[in-house]
Design brief:
Strand order of the largest sheet: 4-5-3-6-8-7
Structural class: alpha/beta
Distance between the termini: 84 Å
Mean pLDDT: 85
Shape: globular
Number of strands: 8
Number of helices: 23
Helix content: 55-70%
Largest sheet: 6 strands, mixed
Low-confidence stretches: 502-509
Length: 553
């Protein structure tokens, strides 16, 4: 008993970590069901680095990966190399790094809370809340740079707080390294790594009459961050930022032009006052920003992208919302600088997400808010139970009801994730390719050409991934992707739902070629000049692809 009492925190934290590992690694190979095109791209580029030292386009160890006409950070693929080497090119290996860094972030949330609030119990509650919250689990179980970004940004925050309080220059170095790795892991981190030191300076440096040396350290860290951003921006693509920014997206201007056209009988001055870029962009930003704080986004249906949505499940559990509101209330009531910092962190670091256009509200771009949200929830839980603890019977009943509700919501979430997600709108995750590519490998020796519809996702990356296509051979062919009426090896891609349809809309080989195998969309009828060999289905049983053999006249 003495041992348990002495090491109680370590034991509890270890149990929390174990729970986090189970929730993130259990059935990781098959849940989520299917692999998104981005996941396949990260995985195949990892495989290509492992085999050739080059990405799929033959570029040696790049900082960014060109993929689907935009760019991704290459850091995730580099971090995945050990796991693909050990486990092979599989969904499990590809997702491993994401799950691992999410587990590490559980520990970082514990350290960050302890540093901010100096309360061991709240620190443990924060780690536990983070470990079981759907927002973190959903993202941790998919391949992507978001969990890497979140880990390093949390480490950056902790390091700068340590530097301010403990006056250790080593923590500035760790913070700078964390900032560099965060920027290398995602593009929106370029904004966050500037915002976090500014917030920390505003709350914990310039509010105190600390030593000038400490302020200089923070200033030098700013310089380091800014210099790195300038260098990185000069060598990395910003195409993705341009694609999603409201300032470059054509839809924003279309709305403005529509309003101006509808004002055709109004005086020009009035039109200019009410319908201009400042007003239009401003309303768009506020609308976008507001969506990140709605009950629908936080607790009912979640946000975008669709491929990571869990049906009828939000990013937080419903029971967490009252505690979150209570935590915010307590932060301002107590006038605690540390607690108010968490609220401001959530509100300020969500702002960059409002300047994007597509898939709003977006769980990836706003994930930086999750540690602060979990800590605020934990403050609410702790203070609530401390308040009612003196009423023993009430405390016992409430604790029992709280435990039952927690177990129920966690079980409900698990049921929705493991059972329903496989069947519900699985086309967003490209799940049919799991079966299609092995089928194509089976038919491969018997046909001189395999003509594939591009109606669903990007088929080329799934062929590369699931067939473990030799990266050297692919690069030797010029890394051709699946551009219209082109391909590699025996694979040929066409922008038609029904490549083999009797020639009505076909072009070139798509009209029908002897010795060719055709992959039509599942809704296509088998033409008279074709023989249906197999139907590949989505998770809900609906047809995804029809494999059709061309019957030459």
């Amino acid at each position: 008993m003495l041992f348990i009492k002495k090491y109680k925190s370590i034991i509890l934290l270890s149990l929390i970590i174990v729970v986090a590992v189970i929730l993130r690694f259990y059935a990781l190979q098959t849940a989520p069901f299917g692999l998104s095109a981005d996941e396949a791209a990260f995985g195949y580029n990892t495989y290509s680095f492992l085999e050739t030292g080059k990405d799929e386009y033959g570029k040696s160890f790049p900082l960014v990966l060109k993929s689907f006409a935009d760019y991704k950070s290459a850091l995730y693929s580099y971090l995945s190399i050990p796991f693909v080497w050990i486990f092979g090119l599989t969904p499990f290996a590809t997702r491993f790094a994401s799950s691992l860094f999410s587990v590490l972030t559980v520990f970082m949330v514990y350290l960050l809370t302890r540093k901010l609030l100096k309360n061991e119990t709240i620190s443990l509650i924060s780690a536990a809340v983070f470990s079981i919250t759907p927002w973190g689990i959903n993202i941790a179980r998919t391949t992507g740079d978001v969990t890497i970004d979140l880990f390093f940004l949390t480490l950056l925050t902790f390091s700068l707080l340590k530097a301010v309080e403990d006056k250790g220059f080593i923590w500035i170095i760790i913070g700078a390294i964390s900032a560099i790795l965060a920027v290398l892991s995602s593009q929106i981190a370029r904004i966050h790594i500037l915002a976090i030191p500014i917030l920390i300076s505003a709350f914990f440096v310039f509010k105190n009459k600390g030593q000038k040396l400490i302020r200089n350290k923070i200033f030098y860290s700013f310089v380091l961050f800014i210099l790195f951003i300038i260098i990185y921006s000069s060598i990395a693509s910003i195409d993705r930022l341009n694609q999603v920014s409201i300032f470059s997206h054509p839809q924003t201007d279309l709305v403005l032009h529509e309003q101006i056209r509808e004002d055709q009988n109004t005086k020009v001055l009035v039109t200019r006052v009410f319908h201009n870029k400042i007003v239009n962009y401003g309303r768009t930003i506020l609308t976008n920003y507001g969506q990140y704080f709605t009950l629908d986004f936080l607790a009912l249906t979640g946000g975008y992208p669709f491929r990571e949505k869990v049906i009828d499940t939000g990013l937080l559990y419903l029971w967490q919302i009252p505690f979150l509101l209570f935590g915010i209330f307590l932060a301002f009531k107590s006038k605690s600088r540390e607690k108010i910092f968490l609220v401001v962190w959530w509100f300020i670091l969500t702002v960059p997400s409002a300047f994007t256009f597509d898939e709003i509200p977006n769980v990836h771009r706003s994930i930086i808010a999750l540690p602060a949200v979990c800590i605020l929830i934990s403050i609410g839980i702790y203070e609530f139970f401390i308040t009612i603890r003196k009423y023993k019977k009430v405390f016992a009943v409430v604790a029992l009801l709280f435990s039952l509700l927690l177990v129920y919501e966690l079980s409900y979430y698990g049921h929705q994730y493991l059972v329903h997600q496989e069947k519900h709108q699985s086309w967003y995750r490209g799940s049919a390719y799991n079966s299609l590519v092995p089928a194509l490998e089976e038919y491969y020796p018997n046909y001189k050409k395999i003509i594939i519809s591009k109606s669903v996702g990007s088929p080329y990356i799934y062929i590369l991934f699931f067939s473990k296509y030799d990266p050297r051979l692919y690069q030797e062919q010029g890394s051709p992707r699946d551009l219209d009426f082109s391909g590699f090896d025996k694979y040929y891609f066409v922008p038609h739902d029904c490549p083999l349809d009797g020639g009505a809309t076909g072009k070139g080989a798509a009209k029908g070629e002897a010795g060719a195998l055709y992959i039509n969309k599942g809704t296509c009828k088998t033409p008279v000049n074709g023989k249906l060999l197999r139907t590949i289905r989505w998770g809900d049983g609906s047809p995804a692809f029809n494999i059709v053999e061309y019957l030459a006249k």
